[in-house]
Amino acid sequence: MNHLKRIFEKIGKPNIDVTAKNMITSGILDSIDIMKIIVEIDTIIGKPLDSKFIKIENFESFDKIENMIKEAMNEQ
Length: 76
Prior knowledge:
0% strand; mainly alpha; ACP-like_sf; 49% helix; Acyl carrier protein; Non-ribosomal Peptide Synthetase Peptidyl Carrier Protein, Chain A
C-alpha cells in the first residue's frame, strides 16, 4: 500500500484517504489523474499496463488499484 501512497503524492493527491471508495464517481479522481496513475503503475510493473485493466471500477479505491497492480505483475 505504501507504493500507492507514493503514487498519489506524485500525482498531486497526497491527502486522499486510503479507505476512500468510489473515487472516480465521487469526483475525487478525474481522467487526468487516472492517466497519471497509469504512468506510475507502468513504472512499478516495468511495462505498459495492459488495456484490459483500464476500467473505471479498477480505480475506485486503493484496494482495487492494489489488486489491479498485483494482477498485472503476475502476468509478467
